[in-house]
Every structure is written in structure tokens, then in C-alpha cells.
Write a structure and sequence with these properties.
The protein has no helices and 9 strands. It has 130 residues and is mainly beta. Strands 1-3-4-5-6-7-8-9 form an 8-stranded antiparallel β-barrel. This is DUF3224 domain-containing protein.
């Protein structure tokens, strides 16, 4: 199955980098998001990132707990993010962590695609639900 929609970033709360040396910054950011479309939900994201300020190369890993309704079914689940970016491009993989679905979302598996155009974020979730 496929679900899609948009999301907004309601809060972006970066902490002071916890490690800055050799031209590399390591940091943590907390985000809060609201999803609309086939999924109406809110989420909290805990992201750990690395940035090379001189070249703008970067990477992050994150865990995101999503709570709401997907295709009319209520519950929560957890997403795992892994991303890298450099001057040649970027890659992002976001997957549903197995066995994290609750309520009517128990058994949810899948992967999420995120695209950004200006300030507009869109998402598409390819999923199965037992």
C-alpha cells in the first residue's frame, strides 16, 4: 500500500555542537513535525548529525516516534533515518523500525520517501500492515 501527504516542521531545536574539532561538528537536534494527507499525525525526532562547515558535507541519523492515524487506523510507530550529503548529491533512507507499531498499526512495516521543494516537505510511505 502507499500513503502520501505533506508535513511541517513545527520545532527545530539544535543544541550547541558537543564536539567541534578538526573541521568537523557533531551535534544533536530535536524536531517536532505535523503530518497531513493520508496520515494525520505528530512526531518527535531525535537527530545526531555531523557537518563539515568548510565543504557543507553532512550526515545524520535519527529516530522518530510518529503518533496518529494512517489510512484511518490509529496508533504509533518509529522511523529510523540515515542520510548523507556532499557536493555530488545526497541520499536518505527512512524505514519503519520492525515491531514498533502500536494499536491499529501493529505489524506496520515499510519505507518513507521525503522530498523538499523550498519550504514544502512531502512524504510517501510504501507499507504493509498485518
Amino acid at each position: 500500500m502507499r500513503a502520501s501527504g505533506t508535513f511541517t516542521v513545527d520545532a527545530w531545536e539544535p543544541e550547541t555542537p558537543y564536539d567541534q574539532r578538526d573541521g568537523v561538528d557533531l551535534g544533536h537536534t530535536t524536531l517536532r513535525k505535523t503530518f497531513a494527507g493520508d496520515m494525520t499525525a505528530t512526531s518527535e525526532v531525535h537527530m545526531t548529525s555531523v557537518v563539515v562547515p568548510a565543504t557543507q558535507s553532512a550526515a545524520y541519523v535519527a529516530i522518530e516516534r510518529v503518533e496518529g492515524t494512517l489510512a484511518g487506523r490509529g496508533g504509533s510507530f518509529v522511523l529510523q533515518h540515515s542520510a548523507t550529503a556532499d557536493s555530488s548529491g545526497q541520499s536518505l533512507v527512512v524505514t519503519v523500525v520492525p515491531d514498533t507499531g502500536t494499536g491499529e498499526l501493529t505489524g506496520l512495516t515499510g519505507s518513507l520517501l521525503i522530498t523538499k521543494d523550498g519550504d514544502q516537505h512531502t512524504w510517501s510511505l510504501d507499507y504493509t500492515l498485518d
